[in-house]
Amino acid sequence: MGSTLIISDVEFEQEVLNSPKPVLAYFWDEWCGPCRLVSPTIDWIAENYSDRLKVVKLQVDQSPESVKTYKVEGVPGIRIFKNKEVIVSYEGAITKTKLTEMIDSSL
């Protein structure tokens, strides 16, 4: 069973860009109401897709470089990386169904 890895700018290159498997990077913060709704789905994805997908969480206020580099303009924000490239970019609240469809079509 997989779990969500909490990282910041310092670990981004190692944990996301250098990952041998695709990575879902979840940009969030404590002050974000919609993030509280989406976070349980992100944890569910981490547990159920761990064989095919790595899941990391970054607090936007603590990860300004990643936020700037990947143009995260709203939270919650989702970026899916494959071979060091962003292949999916999404911002705003998202349902589990829509997120799983997005992931399934990306893997």
Structure description:
The chain is an alpha/beta fold. The protein has one domain (5-106): 3-Layer(aba) Sandwich (Glutaredoxin), CATH 3.40.30. It has helices spanning 9-17, 33-48, 64-69, 96-106, and strands spanning 5-7, 23-28, 54-59, 77-82, 85-91. It is globular. 28% of the residues are buried.
Task: Give a count of the beta strands, DSSP E runs of length 2 or more.
Answer: 5
Structural class: alpha/beta
**CATH level-four homologous superfamily name:** Glutaredoxin
Cα-based radius of gyration, to the nearest Å: 12 Å
Number of domains: 1
CATH architecture: 3-Layer(aba) Sandwich
Which strands sit side by side, in order, in the main sheet? 1-3-2-4-5
Global mean pLDDT: 96
Multimerization status: single chain
Estimate percent helicity: 25-40%
Strand and helix order:
EHEHEHEEH
The low-confidence runs, each spanning 5 or more residues with pLDDT under 50, are: none
CATH topology description: Glutaredoxin
- In CATH's first tier, which class applies? Alpha Beta
What is the straight-line distance between the termini? 18 Å
- The fraction of residues assigned to DSSP E strands is 25-35%
**Number of helices in the DSSP assignment:** 4
What kind of sheet is the major sheet? 5 strands, mixed
The shape is: globular
